[in-house]
Amino acid sequence: MSRPRRRGGEHGSAIVEFVWLAILLLVPLLYVLLAVFDTQRAAYAASAAARSASRAFVTSPDQATGYARAEAAARLAFGDQGLEAGGFTLTISCRPDPQRCLTPGSVVAAEVRSAADLPLMPAVLGGNIPRIAVSAVHRSPYGTFREGRS
C-alpha cells in the first residue's frame, strides 16, 4: 500500500505563517506599550511637579518668591523624567484668601497640566499630533501655628 504524496508547495509554510502572525501581533502590542510608558512617565512627572511646587511655595519667604520657586521645582520634576521643562502649565491657588497665601491656616494647591505625545507619530500630521492629557493637584497646608508671611 502506498502513501499519498504530499504537495511540495506547502512544505515549511508553517514557519512563514508563524512569523507573519507574530509580526502582526507584536508590532501593535509594542506600540501600545510605548504609549503606556510615555503616558505613565508624563503622569508621574505631573504628580511630582505638583507636589514639589506646592511644597516649594509653602516654604518660601514671601509670596512673590513662592511663585518663582514653585515654577522652578515643577521644571526640575519634569526634567528628572526626561521631559521638556516647558511642556506644562502650573496654577497656584490658595484658600481661604487667594491674596494672602502664606498666612496661618491657609492651604496652597498646585495644579499641573501636561500632555504626552503618542510615540512614533509622523511629522506629516503637522502640529496635530495626538496627545494624552495628564494632570495632578497637590495641596499643602501652611500650618496653623506658623508665623504669617506676606
From TrEMBL:
It comes from the Bacteria. Keywords: Membrane, Transmembrane, Transmembrane helix. The chain crosses the membrane at residues 12-37. This is Pilus assembly protein. It comes from Nocardioides pocheonensis.
